[in-house]
Specification:
The chain has about 210 residues and is mostly helical. The chain contains ten helices and two strands. Strands 1-2 form a two-stranded antiparallel ribbon.
Length: about 210
């Protein structure tokens, strides 16, 4: 609780530093509630110097500070009170970033009462589902946009092997494909062929792609 309280105080100080720097910069300014329209370079420089962070680290910290001070103040208060820790505050902030402020606060209100009792993976899962429920149309648009960026990549590994990945695939099709690979791999093992299930999956995958599967 003491660590969470100290982090909340630091985040609040960072948020107000960003707001003061934005107010002093005519190209940025602040919104009606006092939050900076954006975190400027001057603010990032001050934060980086004061906290001995990289510019990238300062940007992430400042963004979280502004979010917990103005966009999700209840999460900021819960962190200050030690009801949740910093990791859980980040989960809520990151999960609701795709929502409007009103919808984000509705999700926040739904998660906070029990967020401190859930494990971090459980909170992530509940937050994901709450975000989808809060804005199903937006979730569908984001899914479609992500699938349009589907990609297959090949990476060379240091031990003269390679890694083949397929990202942003439709969930149902990807799950069905993995289930088929697993079923075929289990059949190979049941037939007495040596090797782990993972090895059989990879051999079947390459065989299917290359047309060389016995």
């Amino acid at each position: 609780q003491a660590a969470a309280h100290a982090q909340a105080i630091e985040l609040a100080a960072v948020a107000h530093l960003a707001a003061r720097a934005a107010q002093a910069d005519p190209r940025i300014g602040v919104e009606a509630d006092g939050r900076p329209a954006r975190v400027g370079r001057d603010a990032l420089g001050q934060i980086s110097l004061a906290l001995m962070q990289t510019r990238c680290g300062a940007e992430v910290w400042a963004d979280l500070a502004v979010t917990l001070t103005w966009r999700l103040p209840a999460t900021g208060r819960a962190l200050a009170a030690g009801v949740i820790d910093l990791d859980r505050a980040k989960v809520i902030a990151e999960a609701t970033a795709v929502l409007t402020q009103d919808s984000a606060r509705a999700v926040e209100a739904r998660l906070l009462p029990a967020a401190g009792t859930w494990t971090k993976p459980d909170l992530k899962d509940r937050a994901r589902r709450a975000v989808i429920a809060a804005d199903p149309d937006g979730a569908e648009r984001r899914r479609q946009a992500a699938e349009r960026n589907a990609e297959v990549r090949l990476y060379a590994d240091e031990d003269q092997t390679a890694t083949l990945t397929a990202s942003k695939q439709p969930q149902i099709h990807a799950a069905a494909a993995f289930a088929r690979l697993t079923a075929m791999a289990r059949a190979r093992k049941a037939a007495g062929l040596p090797g782990s299930l993972g090895l059989h999956r990879s051999q079947i995958l390459l065989g299917l792609l290359l047309g060389t599967l016995p």
